[in-house]
Amino acid sequence: MKLLIYLNTLTILRLRTVLTTSIYFISLSILHLIMILQYSASRYISIWDYLLLSVGGVLVNDTVIRLLVWIGVLLPVLIYLYCLPSVNGAYDIVLLTRSGSRFRWWTAKYMAIMIIISIYGVWYGIIHFITGSFFFSLQNDWGPLVKEEFIRIFQLQLSPASIIGLAMLLFVSGLLAFCTLGQSFAIFFRHSRAASVILTILLLAVYLCYSLKGLLFRELSPFHYPSFISVIQTGAHGLSAFAYFLCFNIFLSFACYLLGLAAIRRISFTGKNG
Fold it and tell me: Membrane spanning segments where (predicted)?
């Protein structure tokens, strides 16, 4: 099992991919830097304000630019994980043959995704912290931006580091739920590119509908699963809402694992890709 997890992880964590992702994250951190300077309207900003707006996600009825940038935050991990759901690729068939068990093969893929997502989330946060430390104060307090614009978060009466920790936890669990949902979808549709394009368009439409109008339930908008700010700002119960959506992300991810496990037991590995 360890070897299977290692081999699946290596399909993504290559030097070229790590370097490309790092450059992309640096570009995103600079873009977030520019946006928060404009958003602050010359108010004092601490590094915690910067990290909250970078890692914490988006608000309902947020600006169009921030909504589009949030899609950019989630996009790379979906692209990198696209190769993992394959059920017909030669590499997958070799791994399946050597493992001798579809359960072990599928579980190794799921564990590899957990590892990749965790690394992705932590690396994203580290690069933003490094970038922010060059421009903002490192003192352990919120700036006026959070105190005035994100009152519900400030009223939680937790230290900024604790809030960022919770935001990171939801970020990683939300990405995991989002990616395993996409993986299960790919299994059912035999990794069809056409089906993936249709799903992506549908997810974007739901994301914009919820973000701009707030007409749908948040559970129906997977792009919001990693978003901490929207949970606290729209939830009436503060940390209770956070705990609910954290559990929701974990449950959905595990349910997708079980769904995929049931699906691959009925799939023939001799057909052609869609």
Answer: 12-37, 67-91, 112-138, 158-182, 194-216, 241-264
What distance in Å separates the CA atoms of residue 154 and residue 169, rounded to the nearest whole number?
Answer: 18
Distances (CA, A) of 9 to 12, 116, 193: 6, 7, 22
Q: What are phi and psi of 140, to 5 degrees?
A: -85, 70
Which residues, in sequence order, are bridge partners of residue 46? 137
Q: What is the mean pLDDT of each run of 10 residues along the chain (274 residues)?
A: 76 84 92 82 80 88 84 83 57 66 82 90 93 84 78 81 92 91 75 72 83 76 89 71 92 91 71 44
With a CB cutoff of 8 Å and minimum separation 6, the contacts of 15 are none
Q: Is 236 buried (19+), middle (13-18) or exposed (0-12) by CB count in 10 A?
A: exposed
- Residue 20, helix vs strand vs coil: helix
Q: For the whole model, what pTM was predicted?
A: 0.86
Place of tokens 């692209």: 79
The pair of structure tokens assigned to 180 is 């395993």
The CA distances from residue 158 to 40, 161, 164, 194, 236, in Å, are: 22, 8, 10, 46, 17
CB 253 within 8 A of CB 172: no
Question: Residue 198 and residue 231: Cα distance in Å, rounded?
Answer: 27
Residue pair 35/66 in contact (Cβ under 8 Å)? The answer is yes
Continuous segment of H or E residues that includes residue 199: helix 193-213
- Residue 139: φ, ψ to 5°: -65, 150
